[in-house]
Amino acid sequence: MPSLHAFANPARFLKIARPLTPVLLLLGAALVAIGCWAGLTRTPADYLQGETVRILYIHVPAAWLGMGGWSGIAISSLVFLVWRHPLADVAARAIAVPGATFAALCLVTGAIWGRPTWGTWWQWDGRLTSMLLLFFVYLGYLALAQADRERGGDGRIPALYGLAGTVLLPIIRYSVVWWNTLHQGASIGLTRSSIDGAILWPLPFTILGFTLLFGAIVLMRMRTILARAKAEARLRRKARPAVVA
Amino acid sequence: MTAKNQRLALALLAVGAILAAALLALSGLKDQAAFFYAPGDVARAVPPPDQAVRLGGMVQKGSIRRARDGVSIAFVVTDGRATTPVTFSGIAPDLFREGSGVVAEGHFNADRSFTATNLLAKHDEKYMPPEVAGRMHETTTLED
């Protein structure tokens, strides 16, 4: 019976991850390059913001991956807590660094965008503040996962933290609906967008491209974590007879 | 109920409880977490002059008056329910214009007008090239 546990075997995972990594990496880089080139040269400027609007092609994927990364941590944490799936713990820890990086990239590009359009680098409005909180929650996760590993924990405490942090995702999403904010409302819905097609079309390229790059980074980090665990286990086995003798 | 199902139910219950608690806290926070007041929010009770507040809304069309000193401007902020006259001395952001969103930092005066110490421009979620915008919005040119 094919079950979730078919993928719990690290050897089987590595067999898929090893060839998949360069594919994701190259495809992602190509899509990002096409999207950035088109976004810089092939699209018109905005009627109100002028050329500044082009930072959209980086800011939106960064925001998507900052939040998507935490969704990944939450799902992995749930799978780890419920099904005790060892790879889920590895995945959650592998996602945290790129997730935090993209959340930071979202904040930085947002500040660079905000200065010429809104007239400020930073304001404590609902959207900006909740996104900054997500970045801090990422940092907390990294510290907690590291501490848990060092004291020989089984990963359950970071997994609980990963589940609890999910609470920020709907807050970020709906902050612009619930409160008066400086940040504008959502431009892109499931079926429609208030961004004109002429400006919008490179955006799917950079969103998909950065997502594939994110996937490649996660796979690389998962392989690193597995390799380190293997090396540590081998060292422990080697060290044991010496201690006994 | 197997141990696995028990853990699943427990985890989902915990997430649900945390979400519910957060939503409850946020709904209690609702007005305090707002970034600015709209003119309609303060129509009944104007905050005292010594309280620093933000006022946000649309700059009413045709309301911007520039003073002779070159840096002072006066305009009217509206949210469709009420209006507030605002005065400001300084450099306004590029996107500050009539019919567009603005957030003014400053304080209310006794006569319900607002003195701004800083202006922020707020734009909406629409992005379009100038040709498309030209078809949708009335544009004014210098050549009459």
From TrEMBL, chain A:
Domain Cytochrome c assembly protein: 24-183
UniProt KW keywords: Cell inner membrane, Cell membrane, Cytochrome c-type biogenesis, Membrane, Transmembrane, Transmembrane helix, Transport
Highest taxon of the lineage: Bacteria
Residue ranges of the TM segments: 62-83, 95-114, 126-147, 159-179, 199-220
Subcellular location per the Swiss-Prot or TrEMBL entry: Cell inner membrane; Membrane
Main subcellular location of this protein, as a coarse class: membrane
Recorded topology in the membrane: Multi-pass membrane protein
Function: Required for the export of heme to the periplasm for the biogenesis of c-type cytochromes.
Record family assignment: Belongs to the CcmC/CycZ/HelC family.
NCBIfam families: ccmC (TIGR01191)
This protein's name: Heme exporter protein C
Organism: Sphingomonas corticis
Species classification: Bacteria, Pseudomonadati, Pseudomonadota, Alphaproteobacteria, Sphingomonadales
Chain's gene name: ccsA
Automatic annotation (TrEMBL), chain B:
Cytoplasmic topology ranges: 1-7
Protein name: Cytochrome c-type biogenesis protein CcmE
Positions on the Extracellular side per record topology: 29-144
Main location: membrane
Stated family: Belongs to the CcmE/CycJ family.
Keyword list, A-Z: Cell membrane, Cytochrome c-type biogenesis, Heme, Iron, Membrane, Metal-binding, Signal-anchor, Transmembrane, Transmembrane helix
Transmembrane segments: none
Binding site for heme: 123, 127
Source organism per UniProt: Sphingomonas corticis
